[in-house]
TrEMBL record:
Protein's name according to its UniProt entry: Cyclic nucleotide-binding domain-containing protein
Highest taxon listed in the record's lineage: Eukaryota
InterPro entries in the cross-refs: cNMP-bd_dom (IPR000595), cNMP-bd_dom_sf (IPR018490), K_chnl_dom (IPR013099), K_chnl_volt-dep_EAG (IPR003949), K_chnl_volt-dep_EAG/ELK/ERG (IPR003938), KCNH_animal-type (IPR050818), RmlC-like_jellyroll (IPR014710)
Statement: the UniProt record of this protein carries the keyword Transmembrane helix: yes
One BP term from GO: regulation of membrane potential
Residue ranges of domain Cyclic nucleotide-binding in the record: 169-271
Record key words, sorted: Ion channel, Ion transport, Membrane, Phosphoprotein, Potassium, Potassium channel, Potassium transport, Transmembrane, Transmembrane helix, Transport, Voltage-gated channel
Pfam families from the UniProt entry: cNMP_binding, Ion_trans_2
């Protein structure tokens, strides 16, 4: 033990307290030798815990050792704080991606569990992936619920500005009327091949196409191709207010489509309250295709 670090330290600092076997043999009256041993042991322990390798004692005096121990402790806390925050930042950066893959995994497991056909599987995955690409996993309804009523109306007007600006039926609407309409609009995203209406379904919505293309099919014949700024549904605001019509044709998406929709009951409620606007709306709103009207089979044969 003659060459141990305790013996070497004792000789360098001229403490006659440690024999050749590393044992404390004598103490000064003020306990300096005992203090030096404990401080050195603390230094050795802190150095071993906070660094890589053997904790050699580089400091000489007790004050240097205590100062070094304090700095090692502060450095450890700083490292923990910095790297902890960096880990949190990276976790938050990739949280959306993690939720996306978790959602895809759940959908695949659901389709496998229920034995969905391959064609339906492809449609589901296409819709989910394209919807996520547009929304980035953000639930607009949840965000709107965080906001007060006035702010929610402002957000809805902004989100539906493409409909209000492009269609002349809304040009004479007051600010209050637009806000009342906007909160009832909702967006619908459709992938190619999705059916928006089947023949015989109730026409309880008025649909405004913002982007994309759709086809109207009756008896396996394509009657019309609808695109951006077209409107389809039923003219329930001018007639047939008391009865909900049935669709006489199928409406299928040809491309990825963004459609803004408002329910029949909500639109009639706003029109009834804002009577001057209802007159302007009935005069200026023209449906690109009225799904309630069935095209005569003879006309289809002549056109074909």
């Amino acid at each position: 033990m003659e060459y141990s670090w305790l013996v070497k330290m004792d000789r360098e600092l001229h403490y006659a307290c440690i024999d050749s076997y590393g044992n404390l043999t004598a103490y000064e009256s003020n306990g300096t030798c005992r203090k030096a041993a404990y401080v050195t042991a603390l230094y050795y322990t802190m150095s071993s815990l906070t660094s890589i390798g053997f904790g050699n004692v580089a400091a000489n005096s007790d004050n240097e050792k205590i100062f070094t121990c304090v700095m090692m402790l502060i450095g450890s806390l700083l490292y923990a704080t910095i790297f902890g925050n960096v880990t949190t930042i990276f976790t938050q950066m990739y949280s959306a991606t993690a939720r996306y893959h978790e959602m895809l995994s759940s959908i695949r497991e659901f389709m496998r569990l229920h034995g969905m056909p391959n064609q339906l599987n492809e449609r589901i995955m296409d819709y989910v992936v394209s919807t996520w690409a547009m929304t980035k996993g953000i639930d607009a309804t949840k965000v709107l619920n965080y906001c007060p009523k006035d702010m929610r109306a402002d957000i809805c007007v902004h989100m539906n500005r493409s409909v209000f600006n492009e269609h002349p039926a809304f040009r004479l609407a007051s600010d209050g009327c637009l806000r009342a309409l906007a909160v009832h609009f909702h967006k619908n995203h459709s992938a190619p091949g999705d059916m928006l209406y089947h023949c015989g379904e109730s026409l309880d919505m008025l649909c405004f196409i913002v982007s994309g293309s759709l086809e109207v099919i009756q008896d396996d014949q394509v009657l019309a191709i609808l695109s951006a700024n077209d409107v389809f549904g039923d003219d329930f605001w001018s007639k047939n207010r008391d009865s909900v019509g049935q669709s006489a044709a199928n409406v299928r998406a040809l491309t990825y489509c963004n459609i803004h929709q408002i329910r029949r009951a909500h639109l009639l409620e706003v029109l009834e309250f804002y009577h001057p606007f209802s007159i302007s709306f009935a005069r200026n709103m023209v449906l690109t295709y009225n799904l309630r009207h069935r095209v005569n089979a003879l006309n289809l044969f002549i056109d074909s």
